[in-house]
Write a structure and sequence with these properties.
The protein has 16 helices and 29 strands. The chain is of the alpha/beta class. The longest helix is centred in the last third of the chain and has 21 residues, at about 515-535.
């Protein structure tokens, strides 16, 4: 059974069941798409693509969040097209990401919103564009008639290209098959045990694996309903996420650490009193280092609204494995939060990464039916193997993650990105450990990024701090910074050169991870400016 046949089977059984409800401003339900209407629209889009001659090949899908994105994605898949969901090119980072992705993808067509056409002509010149509005069949109120056209690629063929978040380098096009999606959805289901009557609320970008697979496709493959809002609606008022969980009595949701932290920090007593989170049974948290402080603060803040700490499902995954690999309860292990245990069907190996790393630590390698096919090769319009994969262990493919970890009583502890480890006095130090320690000094420190640069401050490491200085005078902020330096020296025996940033000003990936290599570039630029000022005097 394919991804589309699973969704179409639900459409035949329960055509009036809501598949996707979209909250246009994060509050008002503007569109309700039933499974019957979803299947009818997907069929219409597939037939329209076939009539236009766009069967097979590859496509970049650049659309707003909402029902039109979902139906267009599935319609392209139904036409046997490999689809790469990309963000709208709004703002410098998004434009760069789209330009880089299009260069690698070399798509047959770009399916986009009309307002993005001009920008996309500059970023992907010469590629034929088809507007999302051209493919739609009306108001989406139709019913499925007949069978889906038989153009959809087989289970093992490339289906979706997920461009990785690019936390340490340029985004890479990871190619996943229908079988990968079905296998990973089954893994998520084995953890959350959701069913047709359960609702998932998501604000995550549909261009990222956590939002696309965890927030949209996985629930629908089991006949569940999804309530979606745009990331912008969440960022403007994080309480909208919690209000949607309450309004729809949602059982599942998913977010990186920073989403839970932001929601707890921005809630007002009045808004808190109107929430009911008692029905929430699986609050997945992952995609970036999980901070014990976030688990504690969110639990303490929303316990009066019925939230139970046991609802947290800590997890670990990456685009190269479709999405999820491990899951479990929020166990605190030292300064880290466990990412849970390997889900059934997932194989985890730790392989020695460097003699400088501590005993028991190693690079995380993952095997299982959810491991993606490989990386997209735009020149050949197919995929190639990952740079580092291994087929020798029991005949199963394993792929290197680039992450450093260890296993504690069966639970995976993700320590750091290997490329980010800091060379310090003949050894290495994980930046996450320093960042967690710094963030624990004072509640005003929202995020931190530890990198290695040559500084004029005599530090062994450079530490960028996002500090919310509202209500603090300059002396209070200076005292906090002195405490951070003292704590880092005491705990790790290193000197930290501090750089202050405003909240949410450090560069981040689509999943919220801080892009340390861009932070390093920012700090190098600051040092160069400082040296120029000194010379000018």
């Amino acid at each position: 059974m394919t991804v589309l046949s699973r969704i179409f089977a639900t459409a035949r059984r329960s055509p009036d069941r809501p598949a996707l409800r979209f909250l246009n401003n994060g509050e008002e339900e503007t569109v309700t798409l039933t499974y019957g209407a979803l299947a009818a629209e997907v069929t219409h889009i597939c037939l329209k693509l076939c009539a236009l001659g766009h069967v097979g090949g590859s496509a970049a899908l650049i659309a707003r969040p909402g029902p039109a994105f979902l139906t267009t994605l599935l319609g392209l898949m139904a036409a046997g097209t490999v689809v790469a969901p990309l963000p709208q090119p709004r703002g410098g980072p998004a434009r760069h990401r789209v330009a880089s992705s299009l260069k690698q993808l070399r798509p047959s067509i770009i399916v986009c919103e009309e307002e993005d056409a001009g920008e996309l002509e500059r970023l992907g010149p010469g590629v034929r564009r088809v507007y999302v509005s051209e493919l739609r069949g009306g108001d989406g109120a139709g019913r499925l008639k007949g069978a889906l056209p038989q153009a959809e690629a087989g289970d093992d063929a490339p289906s979706i290209i997920q461009f990785s978040s690019g936390s340490t380098a340029e985004p890479r096009g990871v190619v996943i098959s229908g079988r990968n999606i079905l296998a990973n959805a089954a893994m998520i289901h084995s953890v959350a045990n959701f069913g047709a009557e359960d609702v998932t609320v998501s604000w995550l970008p549909h261009t990222h694996d956590m939002g696309l697979i965890g927030g949209l496709l996985a629930p629908m493959l089991y006949g569940g309903g999804v309530v979606q809002m745009s990331p912008d609606a969440f960022f403007r008022r994080p309480v909208r996420w919690l209000q949607a969980l309450t309004r729809y009595q949602a059982r599942l949701t998913v977010s990186p650490d920073f989403g839970y932290a932001l929601a707890a920090r921005r809630i007002s007593p009045k808004a808190l009193s109107s929430l009911d989170l008692s029905q929430l049974k699986a609050a997945f948290i992952g995609a970036e280092p999980i901070r014990p402080a976030t688990i504690d603060r969110f639990t303490q803040t929303f316990e009066p609204a019925g939230f139970n700490r046991s609802a947290f499902v800590t997890c670990y995954g990456l685009a190269e494995t479709t999405l999820i690999c491990t899951a479990g309860t929020a166990e605190i292990v030292g300064k880290h939060v466990s990412s849970g245990r390997a889900i059934e069907g997932v194989r985890i190996e730790l392989r020695q990464a460097s003699a400088e790393h501590r005993p028991g630590e190693g690079e995380i390698w993952i095997g299982g039916p959810h491991v993606a096919l490989g990386l997209w090769d735009g020149r050949r319009q197919t995929y190639r193997p990952f740079e580092r994969e291994d087929c020798e262990s029991g005949g199963q493919r394993l792929v290197a993650t680039g992450d450093l970890g260890r296993v504690d009583q069966g639970a995976l502890i993700v320590l750091d990105r290997l490329k980010d480890t800091l060379p310090v006095r003949g050894g290495t130090l994980g930046p996450v450990e320093l960042e967690l320690e710094a963030c624990g000094v004072h509640a005003s420190i929202q995020s931190a990024a530890a990198v290695s640069i040559s500084t004029g401050h005599g530090g062994d490491v450079a530490l960028a701090l996002e500090i919310d200085a509202r209500g603090l005078d300059s002396e209070a902020v200076a005292a906090i910074e002195r405490e951070v330096k003292a704590r880092i020296a005491q705990e790790f025996g290193v000197r930290a050169a501090l750089y202050r940033f405003k909240p949410w000003s450090l560069p981040r990936t689509t999943s919220g991870k801080i892009r340390r290599f861009e932070v390093r570039a920012l700090l190098v630029e600051r040092e160069q400016e400082r040296e120029s000022d000194v010379q000018a005097r």
